[in-house]
Design a protein that fits this description.
Blueprint: E1 2-7, H1 29-43, E2 49-52, H2 56-69, E3 73-75, H3 85-88, H4 96-99, H5 103-109, H6 121-138, E4 143-148, H7 150-161, E5 178-182, E6 188-193
Parallel strand pairs: 1-4, 2-3, 2-4
Antiparallel strand pairs: 1-5, 5-6
Helix pairs in contact: 1-2, 6-7
Length: about 210
């Protein structure tokens, strides 16, 4: 069986705030095109189940995939955003160094050592990896889609593949990228699909290797 990890599409966020779990942050026009592209890609594959973070941006992305695959969405709290973001929510990314001195820098420079975090990166990785293992075991002969967020997907991916969490900021998934993993010891990444959307996207926040959500 295979597990498809999908990051949600780009979010409508003109003020560049940390939206974390704030309701009402849905997809932008570009994000909807990204979700439609991912849905078209996955629609050509036999999918048994779709699981998604309960947050608006993930649910909206999953709705496109659900329609293309003819499979309902099941919400999973263990696929939600990294809880450290709740500490910063509502603050503009540019203002974080003033509002929470040193914390954004710590996140970017050494994410495995964040004493202020409500949830450590290892806890996050274990949360998502455990969900992936549980759901894969529930569908041993089929394919499943998990729609989540950038850091949760990346942390879970590293845990499943037996890679160090210090690689959190390396090659993180972009909006609506689809990672194909095959369960094993460790899991293997057998595919990586990127939506081909016309036009250059605006920079993600914080503006470093891969974005923020």
């Amino acid at each position: 069986m295979t597990v498809f990890l999908v990051r949600h599409g780009e979010v409508e966020n003109p003020d560049r705030v940390v939206y974390a779990d704030i309701p009402g942050f849905g997809l932008s026009e570009r994000g909807r095109r990204e979700a439609a592209a991912a849905a078209e890609f996955l629609g050509g594959i036999s999918v048994d189940a779709i699981y998604a973070s309960p947050l608006d941006r993930a649910q909206e992305t999953a709705s496109y995939i659900s329609k293309a695959c003819g499979v309902p969405i099941s919400s999973r709290e263990d696929l939600t955003e990294w809880l450290v973001a709740r500490r910063w929510k509502g603050v503009m990314w540019e203002d974080l160094p003033t509002a929470f001195p040193g914390e954004l820098e710590a996140y970017l420079e050494h994410p495995t050592d964040l004493p202020f975090a409500e949830e450590s990166i290892s806890m996050l990785g274990d949360r998502v990896a455990s969900a992936a293992r549980e759901l894969a075991a529930a569908h041993p002969d089929g394919n499943i889609v998990l729609v989540s967020h950038q850091d949760p997907i990346q942390a879970g991916r590293l845990i499943l593949r037996g890679l160090p969490l210090t690689e959190l900021h390396l090659n993180r998934p972009g909006h609506c990228d689809v990672l194909t993993l095959e369960p094993g010891e460790p899991w293997m990444e057998i595919g990586y699909w990127v939506p081909d959307i016309e036009g250059d996207p605006p920079p993600e926040w914080p503006p470093v290797s891969g974005g923020s959500d």
